Predict the 3D structure of the following.
Amino acid sequence: MLPDLQTLQALFIYDRETGRLFWRWHPNPRTRSIVVGAEAGAKNGAGYLVVKFEGKTLLVHRIIFKILHGVDAPRVDHKNRDRSDNVPSNLRAADATTNNWNREVQARKSLPKGVFENRPGKFRARIMVRGERIDLGTFETIGAAEAAYREASIQHFGEFACA
């Protein structure tokens, strides 16, 4: 849970053009790593910018979303999937399901998202929609299976489609 909006506005200055967050003030003057006016946040292992406040690690994009909209969102999605791009046009409220729709394919996979090799030379496309697996068919080429997935993704996920 994030601090209230008034606290966040007292702690941080947000630059809407660059998407960067700066320390306006910090309640603990003995914290030498925090310099008033300095950019707030360091990348964590997952690539998100985080800050420490009152013993808690806070995600910078969630702070920014609350500063912009005045409310917490269940999740905050980066439209372009760049976890450090926090300009207003790149952040949107999401829930766990819609946030997962905008995920990139796992790095270990050699096939596009939603495409699986069915048997040598045949490719199956399928999509998960709210826990239900939908088979999109078997195709002769990876490209055809990928196109079927992309079309279904846009149909089912709309603006959250990772296409």
About this structure: The radius of gyration is 20 Å. The chain has four helices and ten strands.
